[in-house]
Amino acid sequence: MKILVVGGAGYIGSHTVRQLIRAGHTPVVFDNLSSGHAEALPAEVPLVRGDLLDADAVRAALNAHQPDAVIHFAALIEVGESMRAPARYYRNNVVGSLNLLQAITETRKVPLVFSSTAAVYGTTDLVPIPENAAMQPESVYGETKLMTENMIHAFHTAHGLPYTVLRYFNVCGAAPEGDIGEAHAGKSHLIELAALTALGQREKMFIFGDDYPTPDGTCIRDYVHVQDLADAHVLAVEALLAGQRTEGTFNVGLGHGFSVKEVLDTVDDVIGTPLNRELAPRRAGDPPRLVADATRIREELGFKPQFTNLKDIVQTAWNWHKGHPHDFKQ
Ligand code: UDP
Q: Can you give the residue ranges of the NAD-dependent epimerase/dehydratase domain (predicted)?
């Protein structure tokens, strides 16, 4: 089937393009390349360089390529930046998504898979977090994702748009081949920062708080490998195309978590030398535990993650960063 992958040149998008091809589909990418990379795409995949804020360009891409389904990744994703520049985030993420929804319903009315986030839940004491937990996003970023989820649901009700929303937990790792991986400007994620520290690009790792109510005192997160997440999109789009479902919202995670110390110990193990570590104050807004209740996606979409071992996950991230110390620039 032909799948339009909006934001397909980014980290998760490019891995999804690869898994779609492996599953026998034909992806076409629509991306403004603001943070994505054309180099992350196979040469045979058509790349339409366009912006969701240009409603005519979105409609033109749908008319030109006549996809059977759309997967929507395109968004600004930095929590801190979203608090400093809210207008940019609301415009890009909400207005951009609205343009896409309107274009889909006006032209092809094909199914949509949307890239959402556990940030829609905000700080919660629930462990693990089910999909029906209260949603109180604490950042503009999380709010733009929740607003888009609500818009999609309204388009489903009003126009019969079939959709699946995937709420990601902590996405990490890279393709086992080591040729694509995390490559965006705002580096803040634990595993990526540890890899860059190992490469000598940073002096040390800071542990943001070790007095949390967890077994070793550091925060616990549910780390889902990017290739497994990509497979979740393939499953979601195939279920929509088969008419097996017309709407649904799923957490995507392993269903269990690892602490910051466990992650850093694993990085030391993979790189074969201990990284410098320093204890730092807690980072504002970090809940002690964020772990997905992933029952629903396993039972309803047949999601079965391949990367469940932290060492394997970290190894793929390390292979990518070691081979591409400056992302795609070399
Ligand atoms: N973290 C840390 N040091 C770092 C980066 C992250 O201790 O240099 C911690 C962070 O406080 C959180 C966990 O690692 O508890 C995962 O953070 P990340 O930014 O990777 O993802 P988030 O959970 O914020 O989406």
A: 3-253
CA distance 175 to 13: 12
**Which residues line the pocket of ligand 1, CB cutoff 6 A?**
170, 188-190, 193, 205-208, 219, 221, 260, 283, 286
Q: From CA 183, how far away is CA 168, in angstroms rounded?
A: 18
d(CA 188, ligand 1 centre) in Å: 7
Q: Which of 196, 221, 263, 264 best tests ligand 1's pocket when mutated (most atoms within 8 Å of CB)?
A: 221
Contacts of 95 (CB under 8 A, 6+ apart): 52, 53
Question: Residue 98's domain spans which residues?
Answer: 2-171+223-252
Distance 124 CA to ligand 1 centre (A): 16
Same domain, 196 and 104: no
What's the pTM?
A: 0.97
pLDDT tens, position by position, for the chain (330 residues)?
999 999 999 999 999 999 999 999 999 999 999 999 999 999 999 999 999 999 999 999 999 999 999 999 999 999 889 999 999 999 999 999 999 999 999 987 899 999 999 999 988 889 999 999 999 998 999 999 999 999 999 999 999 999 999 999 999 999 999 999 999 887 889 999 999 999 999 999 999 999 999 999 999 999 999 999 999 999 999 999 999 889 999 999 999 999 999 999 999 999 999 999 999 999 887 889 999 999 999 999 999 999 999 999 999 999 999 999 999 985
Examine the domain organization and report whether 167 and 230 are in the same domain. yes
Whether 201 and 311 share a structural domain: yes
Active site residue 141: yes
CA of residue 207 to ligand 1 center, whole Å:
8
Residues 162 and 201 in one domain: no
Q: Do 50 and 5 touch, CB atoms closer than 8 A?
A: no
CA–CA separation, 259 and 262 (whole Å): 5
Closest C-alpha residue for ligand 1 atom 16? 190
Catalytic residue among 11, 89, 121, 141: 141
Of ligand 1's listed atoms, the one at least distance from the Cα of 119 is: 25
What is the spatial distance between Cα 110 and Cα 234, in angstroms, rounded to a whole number? 15
Instruction: Answer yes or no: do 154 and 292 share one domain.
Output: no
At a CB cut-off of 8 Å and minimum separation 6, what does 54 contact?
A: 99
